[in-house]
Records
---
Amino acid sequence: MRTAAVALLVSVLAMASPSVAAKIKNADKVDGKDAVGAAASVKQRKGKLVATNRKGYLPDNIIRSARNADRLDGLDSAALVTRTAARGEVLRGEWAAWGGGNASYVEDTVSFGKTLPVRVPSTRITVLDEGAPFTANCPGPGQVVPRAWLCVYTNTQGGVTGLNGYNASDGSDNTSTIGFGVYGDCISASCYQYGSWAVRAGSAADAPPRPAPRAASNPR
């Protein structure tokens, strides 16, 4: 008799489950913690679970600040800091200029990779064509002796003459503090020129004041 009564009770609950389920309210806690919506204030959500908004996002101020990341897009954080070259430090690199068309010109722009304390004036830029003898200030590729001096070495060239260095920012004959440009006149249907460079960082005590900008007749 008792077994039959239990079976009857279970059957009644099973038949009534849809209507019973419809009346069940949201749980007051989740694992012992209260929950609030995305619009709750910082004070209201303190120590509680926070739901996302209708678009699936959490509030912008859900954290006070993010921990510093060691890398950004694979780069070490130190690589993202603007760096200034120390006085006397030598920076090196390569350049290449290609083009074509008689009476035109070839050109390349170079980044030093670091910021120089001062620009290198035109009087302290040495540009050596292919086969030109090295100098005391520019004794060979990758080398530069005086501070605030730029050496531009040409490894190979063809159909180019009159190689010059200049400031790509304003067209003056000096460098900028972040890089320089190099150009030459093309005298052939196909022109090319490439090589290396070396600059030794200087200070205001090493280099005279910046010269005036190049005249408007400059082809750039």
---
Amino acid sequence: MYNHLLVAVEESEYSLRAAQEVLNLVDDHTEVSLIHVIDPNRMEEDILPSVINEIKYNQFEEKYKEIKEFYQTNQIHHTLEVKEGNIADLILEEANSGKYDAIVIGAMGKKKFLKLEFGHVSDKILKESSIPVILVK
């Protein structure tokens, strides 16, 4: 079992599956830290970035409620940190800080056909992480 896991979460079903997979990786002493990163520089369509970020954060809030309920039901103690900046870079910075045994991440984000967002993020994390990466499909 692991002592401290970092779990990257966002608003997709892949992220929910990754958060749920933690149940198979923890024991009573494992610390679980969730990280959610909002990238203010990503623009979609012709909508203002602030509007996009608000929509994404609201979608994440809904997904986090599911994760939180799952963790409470299964007695998994966790913390959540929300950061703003480049998604992959901030996750890697946290993962490589020396505090974690492994990182758990979903295979792709909500745009699986375009392979944007978490698809590229998970690719970069797999290549650049100094700790083991558990990629959940």
---
Amino acid sequence: MKLSAEDVIARDIVGRPFLHEQGQFVCRGYVADFTVEGDYWTLKVRDVECLDKMAGQWRHDTDADEYGGSLSQYCSFVEDTIDDIICLSGYGMEINVGPECDSPWSEIDWPELDGYEGGPMTGRLSKRDKKKRRKKRG
């Protein structure tokens, strides 16, 4: 379901986990703030980790503290009503904001990204179960 910037603000995404992809980089962390000023949206983040694709491990990252983009160019806000994930996308990037929960990395069925196969980051869904679930969505 498509959302407006006002819809995203109304969803109160502060404190929720996120998974971000831009080019070769995949990062995860928590939303610190989401604001809109004029034609520009800003997502401030905290506790960010980036995926080291060679080692297959998450590493703390102090460089990433906010993402943003123009509302009038290459911008899309879409909500997956099955998994309660809001996708904020802009020029060359995709940020998936998950629902609030105690263990977001093991409980949420995250979408597939370059370098990350999707689903919970640890735990319950096998690759076969993930494929079945994606077929249901599509």
---
Amino acid sequence: MEPVVLMQAVERLLLTVWAGALWIVGFLVTPLLYRYTDETAVAAALAGELTQAVAWTSLLCAAVLIPAQLRYRIRPLAAHWRLWLLVILVVLVAVGEWWVRPPMVELTQQAVDVAYLSALRAAESLYLIACAIALVLVLGGLQPGRETLAQFASAPDTDSDSERSR
């Protein structure tokens, strides 16, 4: 198997793991926890642990996927929508994990408190946006279309040209 094909397969696998973890935990496991657990505080604590695991999974997947996107060298960089969606997705997950989640952990025992419910709504909104971005990436794929790759192939490679002249 060629290294490029192998790398593309690894990218698809990582994106599938990332998106699947977001969707399963957010839309299946967490609602079931709240439905079948008698104490809301216990369900909230378990849901928090699960979303923390998803956040770390997200960071590990992004550590491979974001640098892999840079190999396409799409110029201008602002036109590289897949890369920017991955970056936005990581930022959303990180904000949810390290900015929204800590106050929620402190308020878990008062799960009906207004502050907890506000933090919960913020976390739900961030999570929903992250899931939608993951869906766009899964449907759109991680590799640029053939026309974008054709433009890349026909553009002069300034990095390798400068190295050859040395």
